[in-house]
Amino acid sequence: MFGPLYDPAAHGAAPSAHARKANRAVAIWLWSLAALVFLMVVVGGATRLTESGLSITQWKPLSGVIPPLSEADWLAEFENYKKIPQYSAVFPNMDLSGFKVIFFWEWSHRLLGRLIGLATLLPLIYFWAKGLLPLGMKSKLLGLLALGGLQGFVGWWMVESGLAGRIEVAQERLAIHLLLASLTFGILVWLAASLKTRPAELDESILPGLKWFAGAGVLLVLLQIGLGALVAGLRAGRAFNTWPLIDGYFVPPLEKLALLEPLWRNFLDNLLMVQFQHRMLAYALLVFALAQAFWTWRAAAASRALRRALALVGLIAAQAGIGIAALVLVVPLWAGLAHQAFAMIVLAMAVAHAQALTQAR
Q: Is the CA virtual torsion 143, 147, 149, 153 positive or negative?
């Protein structure tokens, strides 16, 4: 009863009713976790766009769950915030009521992270004890739990970079933080989708090429999310607010793109280069998705794989449109949040497509 769930599907037989029921319960849990991580990313975007991320200047993993409850507690938190450079540079006229607003965003972001940790750990213990986890999934779920713990440490490491010597967090740490969240989200989507039983949809001989496209597509989406985080961290979306030209050029001259020394600093610190590389990869990603759809159409017309490939093209095109709108409107809150949220939707589609092809044999 308490051993690992035997899944006949892994041995070429149809899964039993018990296995199907258990898989369905685990899948619902994993999809729910993916939804929570999606919400976490959106709230994190709101925290960044409202300049709220540095409002809590201490990391208290346990006691930090409880927000200030008295006026004295609120004043103490506000005094802590006044000690960091961001207060005098960005919010010198802020009063206590304004501080409570930015505190709420950061506190909600951290609270949601804690809730995700509990929503991962407690059901994991239950499913493990009841022997309901599919074969081979235990180690993956333990790795996922460890990844969530790492994300908490990286989040504080990111916040710490903005408490002295600068007025915002380091953009490279923001990129690592967002990439870890995106990786966690992608793994959850993959694991949840893997629990769905599918009939064979493609001939084995055409799978290698399609799998290569799908896997590379996931990596490109993750890279683009990382570049987008650099843009966000540098506030580069509030500069060069024209499209399709950037600073009057489609491709700016090298002396502007390589303005900083050493050369590598331009990819992290040069506003023009950071926004330019994000734009160019967006174009490349759309072309790549079109090529994948064309390849799939040639190899497997009228297949579910083609429908997913076409859906991915549509989602990437929509995301590009949202990004352009956010740029030319100088990143209003709604557009910035929509752009970040839609990036996760694109990632989910890319991961689900890759997973389905891996399971299609």
A: positive
Collapsing DSSP states into helix, strand and coil, what is residue 302? coil
Residue 317, token pair as written in the block: 């095109």
Element (DSSP H or E) covering residue 7 = none
Phi-psi region of 245 (alpha: psi -120 to 50; beta: other; left: phi over 0): beta
Segment 224-239, tens digit of pLDDT: 999 999 999 999 999 9
Q: Please, which pLDDT band fits residue 11 given cuts at 50, 70 and 90? A: very low
Q: What angle do CA 265, 269, 275 make, to 5 degrees?
A: 115
In angstroms, the CA 190 to CA 206 distance is 22
Say how far apart CA 192 and CA 33 lie, in whole Å: 10
Token digits for 323? 């990004």
* Helical segments of 50-95, H only: 71-82, 85-90
Give per-residue pLDDT as tens, 63-102. 889 999 999 999 999 999 999 999 999 999 999 999 999 9
Residue 232, burial from CB neighbour count under 10 angstroms (0-12, 13-18, 19+): buried
Asked if residue 236 lies in contact with residue 247, where contact means CB atoms within 8 angstroms, the answer is no
Q: Which long-range contacts (CB under 8 A, 24 or more apart) does 260-269 make?
A: 268/171, 268/172, 268/230, 269/171, 269/234
The answer for residues whose C-beta is within 8 angstroms of residue 228's C-beta and 6 or more apart is 178, 278, 339, 340, 343
Find where tokens 């919010």 sit: 91
Question: For residues 229 and 181, is the Cβ–Cβ distance under 8 A?
Answer: no
CB 350 within 8 A of CB 221: yes
**If DSSP codes are grouped into helix, strand and coil, which group holds residue 134?**
coil
Give the integer Cα–Cα distance in Å for 6 and 15: 9
* The CA-based dihedral angle spanning residues 126, 135, 35, 69, taken in that order and rounded to the nearest 10 degrees: 30
Separation of alpha carbons 184 and 252, rounded Å: 36
Report which residue type is found at 162. G
DSSP annotation string for 157-223: HHHHTTSSSSSS--HHHHHHHHHHHHHHHHHHHHHHHHTS-----S-GGGHHHHHHHHHHHHHHHHH
The span from the first CA to the last CA of the chain, in angstroms, equals 31
For the entire predicted model, the pTM comes to 0.92
DSSP for residue 246: B
